[in-house]
TrEMBL record:
Catalytic reaction(s) noted: (R)-pantoate + beta-alanine + ATP = (R)-pantothenate + AMP + diphosphate + H(+)
Annotated beta-alanine binding sites: 67
Organism: Ancylobacter polymorphus
Pathway assigned to this chain's UniProt record: Cofactor biosynthesis; (R)-pantothenate biosynthesis; (R)-pantothenate from (R)-pantoate and beta-alanine: step 1/1
Pfam families documented for this protein: Pantoate_ligase
Enzyme Commission identifier(s): 6.3.2.1
Protein name listed in UniProt: Pantothenate synthetase
Active-site residues, as the UniProt record annotates them: 43 (proton donor)
Similarity comment: family membership: Belongs to the pantothenate synthetase family.
Keywords: ATP-binding, Cytoplasm, Ligase, Nucleotide-binding, Pantothenate biosynthesis
Domain of life: Bacteria
NCBIfam families in the record: panC (TIGR00018)
Note: The reaction proceeds by a bi uni uni bi ping pong mechanism.
Length: 288
């Protein structure tokens, strides 16, 4: 007979909160890892970092419709719940919160979060309603679970800055922790959307990270930011991508920067290959 799973699954906010109440009563700290499922080693890194910070780890698995535009890949987004539960359990997760759309957005739902600051430009120029959907669902998840800590990947760097600002601005009593990007051996950032890539596109995809790294090194050695960024844009296009943006931004506010005097720099890219849109980012090291 199959061994029963140690990981619990909650489908409703009421079940989630009842379990959390028991853990709280025992004085246990709680970490939350929000995901859209199709779990990979990047998600596992978030869960491992969560385990190090709390006695109890909850992963949320919800393909949030409000962060997809009607033209985007909501219907074909990979959904692999059974495999996800096996991976989450192996990573030491105590509970998976797997709500359906009606649980998160009941009839009459009409409240959203409006953003400026780090949400401006970059992704928003190409996905204008995306961060409103992300911020609304993340705020709901944080309020539903009221964790001590919530972990987000640096792979979605603008999202991480938006969520940090959201928690601060709405006085949500949670520490938002960013976890470094997990990469394939050739540098491609792990992403649930990498399954869309054909073998030829997969081979090309490594050029995103290579171009960002080359630009970061050049700036770190004293090169002009704009020249380094222009070269990286040209390299990404030459590799066969259609570029949405490749920008140098202040690492926290995501405001435009001219050089290192403007503060720590992050390079961010989004580009399309075939029907797949990939994002990536790196920090510009400061040479001491
Ligand atoms: N390679 C990675 N390294 C570290 N964290 C990651 C990585 N990929 C995703 N994450 C983080 O996992 C969390 C859930 O992300 P999500 O479920 O959207 O996965 P994803 O691989 O980013 O999928 P997508 O292809 O939709 O962007 C987010 O905080 C995201 O930043
Ligand atoms: C944070 C998130 C789970 C909200 O739906 C999603 O944007 C993601 O997976 O990065
Ligand atoms: N990881 C970000 C989720 C999205 O692209 O919708």
């Amino acid at each position: 007979m199959a061994k029963p799973r140690a990981i619990r699954t909650a489908h409703t906010v009421a079940t989630l909160r009842a379990q959390i109440q028991q853990w709280r009563a025992a004085g246990e700290k709680i970490a939350l890892v929000p995901t859209m499922g199709a779990l990979h080693a990047g998600h596992v890194a978030l869960m491992t970092a969560a385990r190090e910070r709390a006695e109890r780890v909850i992963v949320t698995i919800f393909v949030n419709p409000t962060q997809f535009a009607p033209t985007e890949d909501l219907s074909r987004y990979p959904r692999t719940l059974e495999a996800d539960l096996v991976k989450a359990e192996a990573a030491g997760v105590d509970m998976a919160f797997v709500p359906d759309v009606a649980e998160m957005y009941p009839d009459g739902f009409c409240t959203t979060i409006t953003l400026t600051g780090p949400a401006l430009e970059l992704e928003t120029a190409f996905r204008p309603t995306h961060f409103t959907g992300v911020a609304t669902v993340v705020a709901k998840l944080l309020i539903q679970a009221l964790p001590d800590v919530a972990l987000f990947g640096e792979k979605d760097y603008q999202q991480l800055q938006v969520v940090k600002r959201l928690a601060r601005d709405l006085d949500l009593p949670v520490q938002i922790v960013g976890v470094p990007t997990v990469r394939e051996p050739d540098g491609l950032a792990l992403s649930s959307r990498n399954v869309y890539l054909s073998p030829a596109e997969r081979a090309t995809a490594t050029s995103l990270h290579r171009a960002l790294n080359a630009a970061a090194e050049r700036i770190a050695r004293g090169g002009q930011v704009e020249t380094a960024v222009e070269e990286a844009r040209a390299a990404v296009c030459a590799a066969g991508f259609q570029l949405d943006y490749l920008e140098a931004r202040h690492a926290e506010t995501l405001a435009p920067v001219d050089g290192p005097d403007d503060g720590p720099i992050r390079l961010l890219v989004a580009a399309r290959i075939g029907a797949t849109r990939l994002i990536d980012n790196v920090s510009v090291p400061t040479l001491t």
